[in-house]
Specification:
Length: 192
């Protein structure tokens, strides 16, 4: 039986439509969005260290990719000269996050507390913060986006929590009010 060109085209469109619907169904059943996946290939693309030196402090943080492709944020926090924090940050074009409930971070800490901070735009003044402890083992930290509270220069603000519309800035910070060494290893950050 010989098919006409029109029949062959209809069958082809039906097959393409079926695969498209399957791909869409899979996307909807697994609606994750990777924000950053550290690897040897990705390097530290756009990530920079910012210590309390911007205010005269003496803390020293460093950032590198280890042989397994994880980001290693480590150093010393000093309280001298009104210091007390070290951080790494990443700016990127704003993405829509209104359909996501949580951020997830696969990491390995050193038993110390850290902050995960976000901003809706690069020029936004306040940061929205989620504090988390670490166990010293690999773990996945779940960050409820709508519970991230606003701060500016260490002070909590009386404005609404993170509006969960756009995301354009990520930051990890250690600021526990003590002089201490630290090491935080980060593998991946994603939204779900």
């Amino acid at each position: 039986m010989k098919l006409s060109k029109i029949n062959r085209l209809c069958i082809l469109l039906l097959i393409i439509g079926t695969f498209s619907n399957l791909a869409l169904a899979e996307m909807n059943s697994n609606p994750n969005q990777v924000i950053f996946n550290f690897s040897v290939e990705s390097g530290l693309n756009g990530w920079v260290v910012e210590d309390d030196g911007v205010m005269g402090g003496l803390s020293q943080g460093g950032l590198k990719i280890d042989s397994e492709g994880h980001a290693v944020f480590s150093g010393e926090v000093s309280l001298k000269n009104n210091g007390g924090f070290s951080s790494i940050q990443h700016n990127f074009p704003a993405i829509n996050v209104s359909n996501f409930e949580n951020a997830y971070i696969r990491l390995k800490g050193d038993g110390k507390r850290y902050q995960f901070r976000v901003k809706s735009s690069r020029s936004e003044r306040p940061s929205y913060i989620y504090d988390f402890g670490t166990t010293g083992e690999w773990e996945t930290v779940k960050v409820p986006l709508e519970k991230m509270y606003p701060t500016f220069r260490g002070n909590r603000l009386s404005i609404p929590d993170y509006p969960k519309q756009t995301l354009a800035h990520l930051r990890f910070m250690i600021a526990n009010g003590t002089a201490e060494s630290f090491k935080l290893v980060v593998d991946k950050i994603w939204l779900k």
